[in-house]
Amino acid sequence: MQLFTVIFERPVEFGISTLVVAVMILVMLKAAMSAEHRAGWVSRITGPNGKWFFGLLFVAWALVFGIGLQLVPHEGANSPYGGLGLIAMFSGFFIMMGFLWAVIGE
Fold this sequence. Notes:
Layout: H1 6-9, H2 11-33, H3 41-46, H4 48-71, H5 80-104
């Protein structure tokens, strides 16, 4: 029930979060409605050189987070290092999706 009363308890935070969500939806809508063959950065990262870019980016990600997360103390997910692991997981996912997009899009 508390979820339904948040608009009255914290109107400023609710308004800011609503604005952020509206901007995100607008950006996604514009991206989805854009033309298929775009010039510029999209064609550069989906071309043959995009494979190398995302491949090197993945190697750098693996070195930074693979070695970096081994050097910190393992205290569990309820620590700042758990947050770093979550960032590593999400960034690795998007780097690998970019790599697949570059390889398949060629």
